[in-house]
Write a structure and sequence with these properties.
The chain is of the alpha+beta class. The protein contains 14 helices and 11 strands. A hairpin with a 2-residue loop joins strand 2 (88-103) and strand 3. The chain is elongated.
């Protein structure tokens, strides 16, 4: 039997039993659509969360610290030692100390971090409002602050940019001077807030790195190290650890999060698979009924010269076509359901003053995979009816009523 004849016979069901065929395809589509909807929701939430906590530069960065070893100093010698390692693209240190922040005569203590502009990019820091300062001299009096620190002074995000800020820093003690005691020293310049980091739990502020150098800070609390590429990450980490430093990476946290999301996606897909199994049972029932209705037709075809292999192929082609169109319909149902659900969520978020988000993400490879999976389900569902049809005796089929 020619392929064109096989395709024409396999698609005849759309003319002879149009309603039943469409309902069968719709049943498969609902199962496939449920899988696509739930898995896309899992991927969307994963992308939404991970994109908010990291950047591409942050994934290639390592956090280097001295840990609890007090005698181990994180200074310029440590930075020079780290820079000798092959595979490192950039090194950015962080200075941390206690500070008194003063706004309109009201003061409160918080944590002051002094870092260069590169540090924000390597750390994956995101701003809620405003912008980061640069390393230019003109930005030396500009700061970035957390939303929790603003709440200490009862400042809202709208008028915080207009306020003049003053600081007193706790300077490092001089180990060679036994009579020296650490005390807060007022900074000479006034500062302006140009960026706000959304953090309701920690009160901190970022000041330009040069301020720390000007006031004698020579010991760093943390060093950010960016490697050239992902392949260099493990090698550089090992080399830094061998030098006595403690190293952690955001990529480790992301990998753990991805493992958790994979489990979540499997659980979500399992709910859709239940619907698909029910749909597959309906499809199996349809193919079995089709076999009974066409028993005499099969006998006539065999009498006219059709082989058992031709009958086998005809039934399998029908089931694969139903499975394929079921997958195509499922992709459309799942996509439309995701768009509608996302629209309703954003509508609700907008009504309460929230931020609009996209909760669904569907990789192209998953669409191809799920359509292939649907076709395979159709193939497996039609295997038994095709086998029975191929074994039918022509004479018994002609006498069948």
């Amino acid at each position: 039997m020619l392929a064109t004849d096989l395709f024409r016979l396999a698609t005849r069901m759309f003319r002879t039993n149009c309603s039943r065929t469409i309902l069968t395809i719709l049943g498969i589509s609902v199962g496939i659509g449920a899988i696509l909807f739930l898995v896309s929701l899992g991927y969307g939430v994963q992308e939404l969360i991970l994109n908010r906590i990291t950047t591409s530069d942050a994934l290639l960065s390592l956090d280097v610290s001295a840990g609890d070893v007090e005698s181990f100093k994180m200074d310029n010698n440590a930075i020079n030692s780290i820079k000798e390692i092959n595979g490192i693209e950039k090194v950015s240190p962080l200075i941390s100390t206690q500070a008194q922040m003063i706004v309109n005569g009201v003061s409160s203590e918080l944590n002051a971090n002094m870092a260069s502009n590169d540090f924000f990019r390597l750390d994956g820091t995101a701003l809620k409002k405003g912008e980061f300062y640069t390393d230019d001299l003109s930005d030396k009096n500009k700061i970035v602050i957390s939303s929790a620190a603003l709440q200490l002074f009862n400042l809202n995000e709208e008028n915080a940019f207009d306020r003049k800020i003053n600081f007193s820093l706790l300077l490092p003690s001089k180990e060679e001077d036994a009579n020296f005691t650490s005390e807060f020293t007022a900074l000479e310049n006034d500062f302006n807030i140009i960026g706000i980091i959304e953090d309701e739990n920690s009160s901190f502020v970022y000041l330009p790195f040069d301020i720390g150098l000007d006031y004698g800070f020579d010991n760093y609390s943390k060093i950010k190290v960016k490697v050239i590429d992902e392949e260099s990450l493990d090698f550089v980490r090992t080399e830094i650890i061998d030098k006595g430093f403690i190293v952690s990476a955001l990529s480790d946290i992301i990998e753990q999060a991805n493992q958790i999301f994979k489990v979540v996606q499997i659980i979500l897909a399992s709910f859709g698979v239940v619907a698909l199994i029910v749909s597959a049972i309906g499809m199996f029932n349809t193919m079995t009924i089709t076999l009974l209705e066409r028993t005499q037709e099969i006998g006539i075809m065999k009498t006219l010269g059709a082989t058992s292999f031709d009958i086998w192929n005809m039934f399998l082609a029908e089931s694969i076509i139903i499975g394929f169109f079921g997958g195509l319909g499922g992709v459309m149902i799942g996509w439309f359901g995701g768009v509608l659900f996302n629209y309703l969520i954003n509508l609700l978020a907008g009504a309460f003053g929230g931020e609009k988000i996209d909760m669904f993400y569907t990789p192209y490879w998953f669409v191809i995979l799920i359509m292939s999976f649907s076709s395979v389900v159709g193939l497996l569902t039609g295997f038994y009816p095709a086998r029975r049809a191929a074994k039918i005796n022509a004479l018994e089929a002609l006498r069948y009523k």
